[in-house]
Amino acid sequence: MPQFLVTWLVMAVSFLITAYLVPGFYVTGFIAALIAAVMLGLVNAIVRPLLILLTLPLTIFTLGFFLLIVNALTLQLAAFLTRGFSIRGLFSAILGSIVLTIVSSILNMFFKKDGDRDRD
């Protein structure tokens, strides 16, 4: 199976696990999680770089901690654009972005192709 499909499925499962672990982070089902994974990818590709650029002085002043807020905002935007995915409040978005990153990283370690492991 092409690696981008594996990554997409891993991200969707990560959304479901995060919804189970984080209060205020809701995904109604696997289809909603698949769509949320696509939306988050699009938001991260288009909107997030602009947010990072616009908030660069604040990010430097806070030694990078403001990127947690940027990640939470991009996650909330993806939730706004996706039916079946919602986040209640900024704290849930911040905690959700942290948990989502950790869960997807752990799952990606298990599903990396053997050729990808050699490059690490």
Give structural attributes:
single chain, 120 residues, mainly alpha, two-stranded antiparallel ribbon, 6 helices, 5% strand
What's this entry about, in short?
This protein is mainly alpha-helical and 120 residues long. 78% of the residues lie in helices and 5% in strands. The longest helix is centred in the middle third of the chain and has 25 residues, at 30-54.
Q: If you had to describe this structure to a student in words, what would you say it looks like?
A:
The chain is mainly α. 78% of the residues lie in helices and 5% in strands. It has helices at residues 3-21, 30-54, 56-61, 66-81, 90-111, 114-118, and strands at residues 25-27, 85-87. The protein has a two-stranded antiparallel ribbon.
Beta-strand fraction estimate? 5-15%
Could you spell the SSE succession in H and E letters? HEHHHEHH
Arrangement of strands in the largest sheet: 1-2
Taking the alpha carbons of the first and last residues, their distance comes to: 21 Å
The SS-based structural class is: mainly alpha
Principal-axis shape: globular
Topology:
Elements: H1 3-21, E1 25-27, H2 30-54, H3 56-61, H4 66-81, E2 85-87, H5 90-111, H6 114-118
Antiparallel strand pairs: 1-2
Helix pairs in contact: 1-2, 1-5, 2-4, 4-5
